[in-house]
## 1
Amino acid sequence: MAPSSSVVAKIKVQLKLSISRLRMVQQKDTAIAKQQRRAMAQLLEPSSTLLNPSAQQGKEESARIRVENIIHSDITTELLEILELYCELLLARTGLLEAKECDPGLEEAVKSIIYAAPRTDIKELQTVRQLLVEKYGKDFALAAVENSDGKVAERVVRKLRVDPPERALVQAYLEEIARTYVVAWPKRQQVREEEGDDSDEPGEGQAVKVLETPLATDELSKATPPRDLGPRSPVSVAPPSPSTDNLNPRIRLPGPPELKPGAKMTGLKKTTATEARSEGKEGEPGGRKGLVGGKIPDVDELAKRFADLKR
């Protein structure tokens, strides 16, 4: 087996192990973050035993410091999720790893893994990084570590920054935790909203938009009424969506069945027509016996026929 094929086979095995490991770590971090959020809600909840307002203020400050750990944990979980997607991409396109040069469709994933793997605690992912460096060379790895060509994903670079979270983000996290665990926080803002709703004093209000002038009677008489006006059918049928089997679907409503004469009725009609033609030939000229549309017999002829019947 060629050396490149051997490296690709090792990369494939380590990618599978990395995906499993990344998913397990994400589940673990998510469970820990949920416990931390519950503890944070207890800090934010106002306690009736604390008569000193400064003690409650101290609890809020402690919550603001601890919530940064939750924010950092969430950012790390998001980073692991991105790396998991890149590992799945490489695993699905292992055939492209056989080439000597890195395929442009895999360059972002490969360089992002080489850039981010040392900053994680996933040993399997670090093994994948070593194999990729062995596969594409030190110059390629150096360009990925320094991100000199900007091929590393921007979201990966942003997740790995060590800047402290913004104050607005911390406030948003605390408010979301309080809302999730039904904690009356922040107390001052809630009291202010309740006082504003219960006050009877007129507020400043907003400017009312001037309504348009009503139309004159003559213009209303000339106007065309909308077509939608009037009773509608209580039955409405939504058109079916196109599919691969039927690209142009049509609605077919059930109607009365179309009656077609059977073979027995068709044969009977033919027999009747044949007998009528034969009777017309045997009868008197200029008329047909027993058929509508022939010559009407007079009284003498009827009497003669009646006499013949009595014999």
Note: The longest helix spans residues 3-44.
## 2
Amino acid sequence: ELEVNRLQQEGTSIVGAGVETTKSTLTLATFYILKNPKVLQRLRKELKQVFPDPNKPPELSELEQLPFLTAIIRESLRLSNGVAQRLPRVSRTPIQYSTYTIPPGFPISMSAYVQHRDERIFPSSKTFNPDRWIDPTQERHLSRYLVSFSKGTRMCLGVNLAWAEMYIGLATVFRRVELELFETESDAVDMAREYFVPLPKRGTKGVRVLVK
């Protein structure tokens, strides 16, 4: 358990799962917030209600009650995917799915990328639209299909930490700092390659901003 190779693998897993995924979601969120002036305006208006003094941030529990900030995070998770690669699961017993019997030991997997862009569930799926999450009934329905952290007993262990990072990070940045996109288009955040996590096309310089 303490062999160098095993520790290297564990370290890589922690960095990849705990840093890269949240970073890409925050990057994508920042791009689309700045790309859509109405979204930016609504977010800042909402933040000022619980964050009137930029130097006195509110508690996480207060940020979690903000519907538009929460909707932005959910929509960013949907488009950033978390993990792009299929995550197989293996059952030791037979599974009956509709008319199909899945035998024990047979790997089952799905694609978050494909599910998050299913037009039957998320109309205009390629469009960044936080409003699809605003209605509580619709939000509960859509959340069933949001699998950025996977689902069930083997879902991401860091889900609560990731949500906290996104709430605090986005709220703090957009309450305290005036930003403007600089020579950045959607190809800086759109998935073009899959290396376990989604990556944009080669050659992109990433999301670049000007601090006003």
Note: The beta strands are 89-90, 95-97, 100-102, 107-108, 179-181, 193-195, 197-199, 209-211.
## 3
Amino acid sequence: MSRAAKLTLAGTSAMATSIVVFVHYSQQAEKAAMHAGVIRDIEQQRVKKERQADFEMQRALEQEYRRVQEVHDGGEAGPAEAGTG
């Protein structure tokens, strides 16, 4: 085998090996990024459920307070404002 053929074979083998290694690590990084996205989505769903539960609790408290108390929205004139004018 000539020297040029040996160098070509060695270069081609090194290039093929480096490509395989690069693709392997690239796939691992991509898999890790996808897994991080799933974890992030699960966390967002958990936060959304917590916020929804807080909202429902606040709504229930508001309804309870409205039943117990008389609440004015500010649309009508109160006794202090009725005398002025």
Note: The two ends are 112 Å apart (CA to CA).
